[in-house]
Structure formats: structure tokens, C-alpha cells
Amino acid sequence: MKSALRILYPAQCLACEVLIDGASGLCGSCWSETPFILGTACRKCGTPLLGEAPGDENALCDDCLRIARPWRNGAAVMTYSGKARKLILSFKHGDRLDLAEPFSHWMLQKGRDLLGSDTIIVPVPIPLRRLIKRRYNQAALLAGNLGRVTGLTVVPDALIRTRHTPPMEGISSEDRFRLQSGAIKIHPRRGTRVAGRPVLLIDDVMTTGATLAAAADALRAGGAATVDVLTLARVAKDI
Length: 239
What we know:
The strands form 2 sheets. A 5-stranded parallel β-sheet has the order 1-7-6-2-3, sandwiched between helices. A two-stranded antiparallel sheet has the order 4-5. The protein is globular, with a radius of gyration of 18 Å. It contains 10 helices and 7 strands. Strand 6 (about 200-205), helix 10 and strand 7 (about 225-235) form a beta-alpha-beta unit. It is α/β, with parallel strands linked by helices and about 240 residues long.
């Protein structure tokens, strides 16, 4: 069926829509212009690092040296800039739900070391008002697709919001952590699915890590054996 569909509807680049021949989802030009994170990266948040020994698995960025992250390890596919930012904004606000599938394959390639046979996948929840307006939670779409390609269990409603939080754009790092603190908890009927299990926490973009910290704190309070983090993109400082 997929072969027939490829004949009827040839693959197009996810970014520029030119016809492509391959499974990457991007044409050669767009692939080269997309800021995938390669080489040494922070083991907690995935931000790319310079000046570290190649393959240093214990390398940490300045932010993760300064901030105690309530998760074990983390990774990100690309930096939130250039073509990556445009693609993610199209996915997040432009109803490009078709991007969830290729994004999940990229996340699998980047985060394979974070996945075990008994890992459960949990998305970061978004505030109810935002969910009603957007009609979908982009982190849940990524988690669902990742579950399909790995065969691992996804618990899309393991976490819930305890209160509405405003959009975080333009808010200082300190205020982000203050606003997100305690804003996420374990769903009262999902605690048994989390307790004693390694959890991979999924979100689309990590900026300061405040939302992921609130989610990881809730998972740990709910008895998760370990919490690791995988995001599609990381907002990174210029290096």
C-alpha cells in the first residue's frame, strides 16, 4: 500500500515541497540547512557543545552545571533556529500534523540510547485553554508516533496540569521556573502505570527546562524509577 501511495503521491521535502527520493523527509539543500545537533552535546539537555572531547558522555552545558535538573539524561534532535524553527512552528501552530511522523523517526535516531525494553513514553501536557484553542498537544503527537515506531507503551495522559500557565515567550528564566513549579502532577488514575517504570519524557522544544522540570518532578513524585528527557529541539545560545 505504501509503495502504491509513493507512486501516486511522490514524496516531497517537508520544508520546501520539492520532490525527493529518500526517507529523510528533506531535500539535500534543506537537510544541510537544518541545524541538527551532531557531535558532543550536553548529556542533560542536548545542547551542542564546543571545546569538549569528542564523545564525552558526561559533558554538561553551563545551564545544566548551574541548574539541578530533576531528570537523569536528555537529548535533542536540533537547535531551535533557522529551518528547524520554521518546521516546528508549522507543526505547532500551522496544523502540519503530517510532520509528527518524520519528527518521531528523527527523535528515535537521536534518543535510542534513552529507550529500554520496559520504558514508557509520556508527553508533557499543555494547559487546557491552549489545548482547546490548538485542538491538539504537539508533544502527545510526537510521543504517540514514537510509541508506534518503537512498540513501547505510551501513556498520553499520565500527567495533567493543575493550573493554567501563560505563554512563556518573553518571560525570564526565573519566572518560568516559578510559574511552572507545581503546575503539573500525575493523573490520579495513572499513577500505577508510572510507578517503578523508567520514563522517557517528550516535548517539542526545551528553552530553560522549567516545564520539563515540573513534569519530571511530578513523575518522580509518582514513583517513576528513572526519568529521561527527549525533545525535538533545544533553544541554544550562540556558540
